Amino acid sequence: xxxxxxxxxxxxxxxxxxxxxxxxxxxxxxxxxxxxxxxxxxxxxxxxxxxxxxxxxxxxxxxxxxxxxxxxxxxxxxxxxxxxxxxxxxxxxxxxxxxxxxxxxxxxxxxxxxxxxxxxxxxxxxxxxxxxxxxxxxxxxxxxxxxxxxxxx
Length: 153
Ligand SMILES: O=C[C@H](O)[C@H](O)COP(=O)(O)O
Hints:
By secondary structure, this protein is an alpha/beta fold. It has six helices and five strands. It has a single domain, classed as Ribose 5-phosphate Isomerase B, Chain: A, CATH 3.40.1400.10.
């Protein structure tokens, strides 16, 4: 069983989002890609609406992961983290992407199209799917402590 992955972006990130969406569609690790928009750079929908829509699909169990793109990645991360059960962060290097999953059990990777190049963004998106959180690891009780602050888990 492969991943269901949500992709989303605002007008600043839509080109990156569409590139990553195409990569995911061709990725054998991915069963389905859900695109929560925007559809074009003309769509001025504010990033929090996209970020929360994407994060809700993860929280609801419709998807296991989400990749959200805005200008910096930060607005998407702040917005996605408003959804209980979601752990989202901007990560612009390989080590941070690894730790987002292995340390933080993060399900939502946020990328900044005005910060990193599209080839790095594509690579980080692919790397994000390489990792699976180990619930028996020493990091697990720390993630449990995060969840306890929001009444989840
Ligand atoms: O975090 C927010 C994003 O970077 C967004 O794409 C741009 O937001 P701004 O237009 O408010 O700078």
